[in-house]
Amino acid sequence: MSVVVTWRVTDVLPAEKKGLRVYLLAEERQFFVEHEQNQQLTKVLVRKKIEKPVYFAGADLNDGDYFFPLASLIHLNIWESVKVAADRALSLAREMKFSSVIMVMDAPDSLGFHKKALEGILLGGYQYSTFKKADKNQAQWPDVCFVVDNLDAADIAADLKRTETVCMSVNRVRDLVDQPAAILGPEELTSACLEVAQKSGLSIDVWDESRLKSEGYTALLAVGQGSIRPPRMVQMQYVPEAESRSHVVLVGKGITFDSGGLSLKPSTSMEEMKRDMAGAAAVIGALEIIAALKPPVKVTGIVALAENMPDARAQRPGDIITMKNGTSVEVKNTDAEGRLVLVDALLRAVELKPDYLVDIATLTGACLVALGTKLAGVLGDQEVVDRLCKAGEETGEILWQLPLEPAYKEDLKSDAADLANVGSDRYGGTIRGALFLQEFVPEGVPWAHIDIAGPSFVSKKWKYFTPGATGFGARVLAGLVKNL
Ligand SMILES: [Zn+2]
After folding, report:
1. Quick one: which of 18, 212, 287, 329 is 20 to 30 A from 205 by CA?
2. What pLDDT score was predicted for residue 168?
3. What residues act catalytically?
4. How many domains is the chain partitioned into structurally?
5. Ligand 1 being an ion, which residues bring their Cβ within 5 A of it?
């Protein structure tokens, strides 16, 4: 990860000759144009014949200027379109080795576009390149100039600084998720938490295996026992200086590699399982963002970290775990381990008496079947679900509510224990997963569960995301807190 973009803001269109001018247009206009590269990017060849050439500061389109008619990206909301357009403009400028890019948005509601454009640039410029040879021909990042209406330089600089903070945290989440499991196990992820906590001034508490044992966190130990790398639980806390309005507890699943355990996954499903800790990474990223933005809300993040491996000591199908709260669970499938480790983190979370409790996890393949790769599933109490969906709309991360249908609790019955960790067939897997977790959240605790098995990573370029981790969830969780 290294996205180094410098920017400035002005209310007049600078006269730079060498730069690339990009006009982000919010409505279709009649241009005499030549389409090139793709449908969204259009080069202006003729400067006349523009119906309403009313650009900000009276700017006119020149030869060599490019514009993105955002209306052609109608499957995205306007702000997502701005992010995509800004990302594309910057990659084009890099390819053409331009030294600067000037961005103007021509739309009645363009106030604040600079934040969204910068978000597209910083998230779009990310690439997981730790193991790649440096590309000597890689062009420098061009300078970016945003031309904005109603300029208040100090406000805008603060806006952009905040946007940069958020994006850099999201990119660090992506780094964690993309890191191979050989170098990122539960202990290394714990070190990453310690680093974030130290840098951001968060308090931190770590449970190693002996503390997990003495305090009765049996599920993490059971899932982790098949790996030579022991499990961990980590709690990080942000306490505002002012009196806090409420207390939000965020819980993340952190399986640093999921082989499935003895219920071994087929090799194609195992390929991407270094990413089974994306929920924990999202929680870590959210805490980092929150610590930087300092909202008046107390926030605690708890991540349950383990590696799920098939070893002589691994848990077996049919084993029974007695959870810290006394509920026994028959492990019918060792590949449904995420919900097990989340139980320990949720039981810790409810001790803290949260006003809002949210867990986030790459929990079920069923969520991919139901919603595809672009949406996260969300289930739980309506108020929390609504707040999360709203935060998701604001950040461009879409959450779709699925029903927490109690009739499916039947499917989680076990002959030998209080509960089974999976049902007897593969239907409704996401709902069953959430119902299982709900069993460990006492009534009256406002709770929701987010399943990010789909959108936590992309296998090909999507919107402004390069193939790999997307950091999905960090912005949503931070947004939930910001809006309280
Ligand atoms: Zn699994």
Report:
1. 329
2. 96
3. 265, 339
4. 2
5. 258, 335, 337
Name the pairing type of β-strands 468-469 and 457-458.
Answer: antiparallel
Which CATH number goes with the domain that contains 264?
3.40.630.10
pTM exceeds cut of 0.90: yes
What residues make up the domain containing 74?
7-149
Average pLDDT of the segment spanning 81-95? 84
Measured in Å, residue 255 CA sits from the centre of ligand 1 at 8
Q: Are 116 and 83 in contact (CB under 8 A)?
A: yes
Q: Reply yes or no on whether the pLDDT at 181 is more than 70.
A: yes
Q: Residue 262 Cα, ligand 1 centroid: separation in angstroms? A: 10
**To which residue do tokens 């993105």 refer?**
68
pLDDT for residue 16? 64
Residue 161: the pLDDT is 93
The pLDDT tens digits for 254-295 are: 999 999 999 999 999 999 999 999 999 999 999 999 999 999
Residues with Cβ within 8 Å of 338's Cβ and at least 6 positions away in sequence, in order, are: 253, 255, 258, 276, 361, 362, 363, 433
Centre of ligand 1 from the C-alpha of residue 365, in Å: 9
CA of 337 to the centre of ligand 1 (A): 5
Tell me, yes or no, whether 87 and 180 share the same domain. no
Which region, left, alpha or beta, applies to residue 123 given φ > 0 means left and ψ of -120 to 50 means alpha?
alpha
